[in-house]
Amino acid sequence: MFCAATGFAGTPKVGTGRFEAERLVPIESARRIKVHFNADRAEALPWKFTPQQKFVTVLPGETSLAFYRAKNMSKKDIIGIATYNVTPDRMAPYFSKVECFCFEEQKLLAGEEVDMPLLFFIDKDVLDDPACRGIDDVVLSYTFFRARRNAQGHLEPDAEEDVVQKSLGFGEYERSPKAEDRVPGNSA
C-alpha cells in the first residue's frame, strides 16, 4: 500500500485521487514516451499470459488503453493475482493507473481465455522533474502468481508451503524449520 501511494520502488501510483480532469489533458508540445509491456508468470501458475501490444507511445496527460491476455491452461479453475512494476523506477510516481486487472484477483475457469484491460496515463508533472527529462522509454511489467485461495474462495488445501514458496520464487532458498518441527532445547 505504501509503494502504491508513493510510487516507491517502481510501483505506479493507484487510488490517490489523481484523476481529476486537468490531469488528463495531453501536453501536445511534450515528447512522446514509449511504454513497453512485459508479462511473466510464476512457474506454479499454469496460465499463458501475454501483452496484446509490444508498446504504445503516449503524451504526458494522455490516457491510453492496453490489453493483456491470460489463458488458464489447466483443467481446474484457478485464481491468480498480478504484481506490477515500472522501470526506470523514477518514472513510477508519474505512472497512474485509472483501471487495471491488477487491482483485484482474477479467476479463470478451466481452459478459459480472457482479455484484461489497463487504462493508464503518465502524469504531466513528469515534465517538471529533472530526473525524468531524458527518459523516452518506460517498461510496465506484470507478474501473475497463483493466489493462496482456490476458485471457491477457500485457502488452497493442496498448496503445501514449499509449493507456495516456489510459486513466489523462493523455491531454491533454504528456510528455517517450522516451529512445530523444532526440538525443544535444540537451537537448529
TrEMBL record:
**Domain of life (superkingdom):** Eukaryota
Q: What is this protein called?
A: Cytochrome oxidase assembly factor
Q: Which organism is it from?
A: Hygrophoropsis aurantiaca
